[in-house]
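Schema walk-through. Below, the input block comes first and the output block second. Nothing else is stored per chain. Lengths vary across the set, and this one has 367 residues.
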Amino acid sequence: MRKREKLRERLRRRRERKLALKAEKLSELEAQKARAAKEGRTVAQDPMADSPREKERQRQRAINALERDVEELGRLSPTEEGTAEIDRLRHEVDELRREFFANISAWQRLQLARHPQRPYTDDFIRLLFENFSEVHGDRHFADDPAIITGMAWFHGKPVMVVGSQKGRDTKQRLARNFGQAKPEGYRKALRATQLAAKFRRPVIVFVDTQGAYPGVGAEERGQAEAIAYNLRELSRLPVPIVVAITGEGGSGGALAIAVGDRVFMLENSVYSVISPEGCASIMWRDASKAEVAAEALKITARDLLEMKLIDEIIPEPEGGAHMDPELTAKLIEPYLERSLRELGQLSPEQLVAQRYEKFRRMGQFFA
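--- output ---
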């Protein structure tokens, strides 16, 4: 009983600490807003704003400590009253964790998007599709393993799958070039989508790449031309194209395979013209300002949906897609199925016209 009372006291102190941290954060934000208003600017425009990273880490550590204490309480032999109390505490901790992940910063979402255990294209192929048959090579130079393409069956219907592919360990990452495609990768993707158009098969695309490979060899073989050619050809492909940003959607390297009739993003994925590190190096000559750049770039799914650059946000398992790849695939599945059903009712001419209008409307808020 004494041990249980001590644990309860620890839980109480931790809850008080959490409330104090929350109050401190609110007061800090109010102070920043007041300073910004006085100087005639917004907080988001201030490149010298204090980083919230350490305080967010403190909050996460406090939640983790609460979880450990609740589990330790549960291992004791509780009474019926104690069981009800533990269930209540467990529910409270779950609510705290949900609140934490619902309000994390753009930089933290970027870290989740880059998590090494996040599901990749080969995982989604295994979990969502049947009878996958990979298509290799671009018929010009070589096969690029940074992009996977192939025919498969989805809900009893034939489809073409295209996706970026990173690696789990160092050997795989080197073999896949860290998911950064070269010109032959984009030409392979285009070849696969044109094959799909020939046989009237819809295309499903999974995007998770930092961007196109920036090496000399890639430039010599026409990297920019390959990306530009893909943009043009995919925009007028006469079959449905459904795109899911599952991790990083980096620059033209992502857009080269992401021209679609429906574009979805996983909750903790990002989509941007440049990485925050690259943006900070250009804007402030200081890569350490990447966290500020991440906020300014509006790279999160919520920001992009608000600007109507994507169609919908797909929720992730609590803690991120890497916590439960199987559940992540199940959450993606109905979005794919619904999109293919809706787009399948349109003629090729309607598809192309609708896709053209979709991308022409983007960015009009800058006019």
